Amino acid sequence: MKPKKHCLLIVDDEPNVCDSVHDLLRREFRVLKAHSAQEGYRIMQEEEVHIVMSDQRMPQITGVELLAKVRSHYPHAVRMLFTGFADLESIIAAINQGHIYGFLKKPWQPEELEAAVRQAAAEYDRLTQAARQREELLSTVDSLQSRVSALEGEMQRLSGLHAPPEASSGSTE
Length: 173
Hints:
Layout lengths: L6 E5 L3 H11 L4 E5 L2 H10 L4 E5 L7 H11 L4 E6 L4 H9 L5 E4 L4 H52 L12
Parallel strand pairs: 1-2, 1-3, 3-4, 4-5
Helix pairs in contact: 2-3
């Protein structure tokens, strides 16, 4: 059985950009396309998306704003931003606030895009594995806490059975 492909959502108001990314990566990734931030967020609610790649400059909402919203509701989705403009302040803010994993500048070389998305897929795998391990650890801790509580109760019960009899307060003269 072939391993499941990672799902990439490309969000750009320019359909030709979405189409070119789809055509380049469709063999290796499941590529979904959205032509607006609203459409992209709707897709996030309907599909299991592993990587979100958004253009910075779109009507109504910027890529940074979209990725911040994605981060708050889908924290394991790896977020990437790209732009054709040197919008350095937005990029710095996005990186500093943890909204994005990576940044690409338009136009990109196909090899550069492929490598960046592969790295994002590896990051998604790392994040989900860490989350699974955390859940397993929390489950183990819960189980151990229950066992300790049960043992403490048993110790109290046993110590009550073996307690020395209380000395009577009355005198036996």
